[in-house]
DNA sequence: ACCGCCGGGTGCC
DNA sequence: ACCGCCGGGTGCC
């Protein structure tokens, strides 16, 4: 619900470090932002937060037994070795590349073991001087942790007569102001285009001509795959290779990341460019399929694709320029994508690859999929989904067919899907064996700098694929406002990312010229009867909520509040959305809980876009806690796993247990659908839509429309008048099978006579990526909490291939909760701007409770 | 290690 | 001398 607002607050707090400034100096204690801030450290077991307790000087011993190299100023990691046969308190010291350097001296190791094993603090090491002898060296240890553990840590240290120096060891002298930081982040993914990037034509096997920006992308991608030069941040220093970010050295020549992040806005042709890459850049920069002149029919070219390794002719020059580590047996490209875009890949292959090119493309999907690894390895392309990959992975314990094949290239489509490293999908993706790695995404960072880590880890951008170094070199310095940290981040992003937006320009010209898009809000007046019903529900809801506000228990009764708000929103659309309202009065706690869970089921079942307070994304695999808050199962499971018996609900701080989580089945009800259709009545909003559609048809019956609602039931209701008026329509919602979706999209996109004019679309159906460019009108039937969700939906038709101006109509019921939602939406959009623009912190305080009060006009 | 620590040799000034 | 001191042997955890 109001989460969007908090998303921004959290975003700001996380990007810029929550400690520095506070939003809610609000007398109401139970605001969500405070609740989350309160639990933040616990939720956040990631080590980029926490305070510095102090540091002390110690020594590393046993250097002569190990090979790890450390330079002056280099960071080292401390690894507990409880199994060490000589000392169960042993603490091993390793350099950035994981090579052992030595051990912490015994007496100090006792202390560290104690602190580390009891999770009292994180301990980080920096070597202050160069190594002067072969036996020992100094190390500065700093202790980071939660404020509540400070005393315990200090006590441990002083009781063993070590001296804790206060204050930071690495002094951050150059810090940004918040405004500077914000600008830097906004620009993080901008201006990545290197002017040096040329253009490259696709091979002939690609029959669609590439646009200039696509040729640039192809050129860049080929260069990323083929370039054997020393990666960024590395310098040759005598015998060693020296990393300028971590000040570390390695003996072995570091390998360049062969791949990167193609982060173009959606609609700029990432799929086409990737297809062009696959066909154009096989081994040694040679095309995958080469034209051969047929001798029988002169002049006609056919294409022979490389199907066995080592047979392509390679000139010595090209062979030398390519990396010697090339594995000639790795030949296939694996594409992993969300189910919703699987068919898009097949369509685009059909569309962009010449018909006389015989590509072996295998769809690794469905229960009958061929799991033979030789078969898979011999394909040119294998397409699969994240779900199939992770399902296989967990079943096989890591030795799935896809994990056995040595791939030439792995492409993660909608790669931001793996931004949470705790998911099975992400773990499965990291374990793939491949030479080249690509991430395609329109949104490289969604909420948080942390989102980037998993992408960096997938690319194996050393040494940042190890969390500790990412955190120490990038994450923490940046969140603390360190200037060099930010510069490093920018440099790092720049060396692996290409991003252009729809507004980017190539040689002064826009990348693509999209038709105009305009938004108009159509106010809907309720009939007197509807108004009476609405006011009744509103008054009732207000009474309940104002009681919660007065008691300060809004968040404790979150499910109840949500249910009331959803009900009002449903009233605005159509009374038939409400479903049965069970208003029995619960008395026992068990009954009360059951009731809350029922209400949440009601809320989620309508397709309302709820947000998980842990990952800040839309809930996936929703589960409901005992205290009636909704999270993604993997997110909350991780909280419980790491906090064990002390686990608290991130929203209300109530105790939570894994055994008490209630699964939420997404496929739901619809059992009284017939009932809905039999007792049909219209509503003001339905009438408003119908009159728009009828007018449109009479003016121009070639214009196609998307009719979008968050409530799938509303779509069902709308089918009735559409049929009555003889509109041909299709429907696309989250419950449909992949096959059916593809059919529906194809039918809608087809310009064949008699193809549908209207698509009923559930707001979240299919996620991103689908192409509905046949439509140029969008009717948003109900306001969404997340303006971005609406934008994404509109982007499905306002994209490459759109020939007409796009007109968006938002229906908003006058004098209703919807109107207030729109107001809050606007505030949200301004919030970040305002937060940085104003000097007075009291002006920017907004609380969840305030928001609910605004909604209910309390 | 140009250290600390150990343990054997040694012992007035 | 149940000490101090000397100087050789020795060395991560």
UniProtKB/TrEMBL annotation:
<protein>
    <recommendedName>
        <fullName>Helicase-like transcription factor</fullName>
    </recommendedName>
</protein>
<dbReference type="GO" id="GO:0005634">
    <property type="term" value="C:nucleus"/>
</dbReference>
<keyword id="KW-0862">Zinc</keyword>
<dbReference type="InterPro" id="IPR027417">
    <property type="entry name" value="P-loop_NTPase"/>
</dbReference>
<keyword id="KW-0863">Zinc-finger</keyword>
<dbReference type="Pfam" id="PF08797">
    <property type="entry name" value="HIRAN"/>
</dbReference>
<dbReference type="InterPro" id="IPR001650">
    <property type="entry name" value="Helicase_C-like"/>
</dbReference>
<feature type="domain" description="RING-type">
    <location>
        <begin position="612"/>
        <end position="653"/>
    </location>
</feature>
<dbReference type="InterPro" id="IPR013083">
    <property type="entry name" value="Znf_RING/FYVE/PHD"/>
</dbReference>
<dbReference type="InterPro" id="IPR018957">
    <property type="entry name" value="Znf_C3HC4_RING-type"/>
</dbReference>
<dbReference type="GO" id="GO:0008270">
    <property type="term" value="F:zinc ion binding"/>
</dbReference>
<dbReference type="Pfam" id="PF00097">
    <property type="entry name" value="zf-C3HC4"/>
</dbReference>
<dbReference type="GO" id="GO:0008094">
    <property type="term" value="F:ATP-dependent activity, acting on DNA"/>
</dbReference>
<dbReference type="InterPro" id="IPR014001">
    <property type="entry name" value="Helicase_ATP-bd"/>
</dbReference>
<dbReference type="GO" id="GO:0004386">
    <property type="term" value="F:helicase activity"/>
</dbReference>
<feature type="domain" description="Helicase ATP-binding">
    <location>
        <begin position="251"/>
        <end position="462"/>
    </location>
</feature>
<dbReference type="Pfam" id="PF00176">
    <property type="entry name" value="SNF2-rel_dom"/>
</dbReference>
<keyword id="KW-0479">Metal-binding</keyword>
<keyword id="KW-0067">ATP-binding</keyword>
<dbReference type="InterPro" id="IPR050628">
    <property type="entry name" value="SNF2_RAD54_helicase_TF"/>
</dbReference>
<dbReference type="InterPro" id="IPR000330">
    <property type="entry name" value="SNF2_N"/>
</dbReference>
<feature type="domain" description="Helicase C-terminal">
    <location>
        <begin position="688"/>
        <end position="847"/>
    </location>
</feature>
<keyword id="KW-0378">Hydrolase</keyword>
<dbReference type="Pfam" id="PF00271">
    <property type="entry name" value="Helicase_C"/>
</dbReference>
<keyword id="KW-0547">Nucleotide-binding</keyword>
<dbReference type="InterPro" id="IPR038718">
    <property type="entry name" value="SNF2-like_sf"/>
</dbReference>
<keyword id="KW-0347">Helicase</keyword>
<dbReference type="GO" id="GO:0016818">
    <property type="term" value="F:hydrolase activity, acting on acid anhydrides, in phosphorus-containing anhydrides"/>
</dbReference>
<dbReference type="GO" id="GO:0005524">
    <property type="term" value="F:ATP binding"/>
</dbReference>
<dbReference type="GO" id="GO:0006281">
    <property type="term" value="P:DNA repair"/>
</dbReference>
<dbReference type="InterPro" id="IPR001841">
    <property type="entry name" value="Znf_RING"/>
</dbReference>
<dbReference type="InterPro" id="IPR017907">
    <property type="entry name" value="Znf_RING_CS"/>
</dbReference>
<dbReference type="GO" id="GO:0003676">
    <property type="term" value="F:nucleic acid binding"/>
</dbReference>
<keyword id="KW-0539">Nucleus</keyword>
<dbReference type="InterPro" id="IPR014905">
    <property type="entry name" value="HIRAN"/>
</dbReference>
<dbReference type="InterPro" id="IPR049730">
    <property type="entry name" value="SNF2/RAD54-like_C"/>
</dbReference>
